[in-house]
Amino acid sequence: MLIAVIMSVAVFFLDARLDYFKPVRSSLSTLVYPIQATASLPSDIKDWAKEFFNDRKQLREKIAVMNANNLLQHVRLQKLQSLERENMRLRKLLGSSFRLQERVQVAELLTVDLDPFSQQVVIDKGDNYGVYVGQAVLDATGVMGQVSETSSMSSHVILLTDPSHSIPVQINRNGLRAVVTGRGLGELLQMDFLPHNADVRVGDILVTSGLGGRFPVGYPVGQVVSVDFPQGKPFADIKVEPAAKLSTSREVMLVLPGEKIHTGMAEPLIKNASSTTAPSTSEEAVSGNNN
């Protein structure tokens, strides 16, 4: 038993510190993928059955609401494109560059990691779809995290709330840069290393600053919910609520590197399992705030 304990500790150390067993984990993830897909099958069947047995009246009402929402979104899209073109003209006059929208790849959550000391999820896209370690992951409302490990058919995504995850941000109101770090399950994010005289207010929106090259500029990270200045400590205690719906989002978007679309396009380009247009998620992002 003593030998087994020593070997277990040695394997744990080699895996956690030296990352010797990463190829093994990748192979095991590929083998476990069919089980993960099967585990999500009941939920998919339930959704299909619910939609199938809806009566025609409910379906007609849904179609009417969707058509109205679609019309409203087209009107907003026209306004958005007008604002983007105006912003491009203004930045051209100022001699500044305008950041075009990124393309993204849509993926779906398979499972949630139940380890209480790490905040990770598994998605149904892997090496075969061009997913890579460090790729930024978004949902419909903001940044979720980044890819931490890949296999052939699936990938692990580390969430913003993981204690080992940090992301460079800037305050949308004044451009002040900082770093936001996870604090674990059920905890708010923490904005680190800002002095007591920093211009931070409750309600400030935090967006990605683009520093480090992992995350594109201007995507929402969270909102400041509390600002405290503890006596005897050099830095302020600032809590941030994530913008992404980390506990409820089912579909995610993987930002594709080095690919942009022209903002003058009349319709967003959508490709199944390849790339889609990532909509701007805030008025500040529309106005082209850059790092």
Range of helix content:
25-40%
Q: What is the C-level CATH assignment of the domain at 100-291?
A: Mainly Beta
Oligomer: single chain
From the 3D structure, determine the CATH topology of the domain at 100-291. Answer: Thrombin, subunit H
Quickly give the structural class.
Answer: alpha+beta
Broad shape? globular
Q: How many strands in all?
A: 13
Question: Any guess at the CATH architecture of the domain at 100-291?
Answer: Beta Barrel
Strand order of the largest sheet: 1-2-5-4-3-12
- Average pLDDT works out at 80
**SSE topology string:** HHHHEEEEEEEEEEEEEH
What's the CATH superfamily of the domain at 100-291, by name? Answer: Rod shape-determining protein MreC, domain 1
Give the strand content. Answer: 25-35%
User: How many individual helices?
Assistant: 5
Distance between the termini: 56 Å
Query: Radius of gyration in whole Å, from Cα?
Result: 22 Å
The main pleated sheet reads as: 6 strands, antiparallel, barrel
Which regions have little confidence, pLDDT < 50, spanning 5+ residues?
Answer: 96-100, 261-291
Structure in words:
The chain is built from 5 helices and 13 strands. The chain is globular, with a radius of gyration of 22 Å. Strand 10 (220-228) and strand 11 (237-242) form a beta hairpin. It has helices at 2-18, 22-39, 41-52, 56-94, 283-286; strands at residues 101-112, 120-123, 136-138, 143-150, 155-159, 166-171, 177-181, 189-192, 205-208, 220-228, 237-242, 251-261, 276-277. With 291 residues, the protein is α+β, with helices and mostly antiparallel strands. The chain has a domain at 100-291: Thrombin, subunit H. The longest helix has 39 residues, at 56-94. The strands form 2 sheets. It has a 6-stranded antiparallel beta barrel. A 6-stranded antiparallel β-barrel has the order 6-7-8-11-10-9.
